[in-house]
Design brief:
The protein contains eight helices and five strands. The protein has helices at residues 5-10, 15-22, 57-66, 81-86, 88-99, 104-113, 124-129, 131-136; strands spanning 39-43, 49-53, 117-121, 139-144, 148-153. The radius of gyration is 23 Å and the shape is elongated.
C-alpha cells in the first residue's frame, strides 16, 4: 500500500490533531513557520529561491553575525525565539534584503560557509539536472513512435524482487477499439 495522500497529509504535522483538540485553525503564513523564526523561503537576485532555517538560538545568532547584523542578537525584539516569532515579518524583511543581493548559488555557498541551515529550492529544470536525480534515473526515456524517445518519471515504487517496468507505450487514439 503506497498511496500518495498519506505522506502528503503527514507534511501537515500536528495540524489535524491540534484542530480536533482545540477547534483552532493554524493561520496561513506561506512558507514561514509559526513556531520558530527565522525560518522561511527567500527570493534571490536571480529569481530563484532558498529555504533558510535558523530557528534555534545558536543558529539565529550565527545568522545575524553572518549577515553583519550582530546588533540583532541583543535586540529585545529578536533576542529569543518567542519574540522573533512575534516580529517575523520584520526579521524576514531584513534577511530577505540580504538574500536578494545574491544569486541562489551565492547564498547557498555563503550560508553553508557560515554554518547556517540553507538549501536551494529547485524548479524542475534544476531537479532534472541534479546529479542525485540523474543517478537515480527519476526521469527515464521510453521509446515513442512519433518522437523516438519520450521522457517520463520512473516506476514507483522500485522493488528488488519484482521491479516494475513500462512495458508498452500508451495506445494511440482508437488503437484498441476492436479489441
Amino acid at each position: 500500500d503506497l498511496p500518495l495522500l498519506d505522506p502528503v497529509f503527514a507534511v501537515l504535522g500536528p495540524q489535524a490533531a491540534n484542530y480536533r483538540l482545540t477547534g483552532q485553525l493554524k493561520p496561513r503564513t506561506g512558507s514561514r513557520s509559526t513556531n520558530s523564526c527565522p525560518r522561511n523561503v527567500y527570493l534571490c537576485k536571480d529569481g530563484k529561491y532558498v529555504g533558510l532555517s535558523a530557528s534555534i538560538q545558536k543558529r539565529a545568532e550565527r545568522l545575524f553575525r553572518s549577515i553583519g547584523r550582530a546588533d540583532l542578537i541583543d535586540n529585545p525584539r529578536y533576542k529569543v525565539n518567542a519574540e522573533r516569532v512575534k516580529h517575523a515579518e520584520e526579521l524576514d524583511a531584513i534577511i530577505g534584503a540580504f538574500v536578494a543581493q545574491r544569486t541562489q548559488a551565492e547564498n547557498v555557498t555563503f550560508f553553508e560557509k557560515a554554518e547556517v541551515t540553507i538549501g536551494p529550492i529547485y524548479d524542475v529544470s534544476q531537479i532534472v539536472a541534479d546529479p542525485h536525480v540523474i543517478e537515480r534515473e527519476l526521469v527515464a526515456d521510453y521509446p515513442d513512435a512519433d518522437m523516438g524517445q519520450f521522457p517520463m518519471h520512473h516506476v514507483v515504487p522500485r522493488l528488488d524482487a519484482t521491479p516494475g517496468t513500462i512495458r508498452t507505450p500508451a495506445p494511440r487514439r482508437g488503437e484498441h477499439n476492436r479489441e
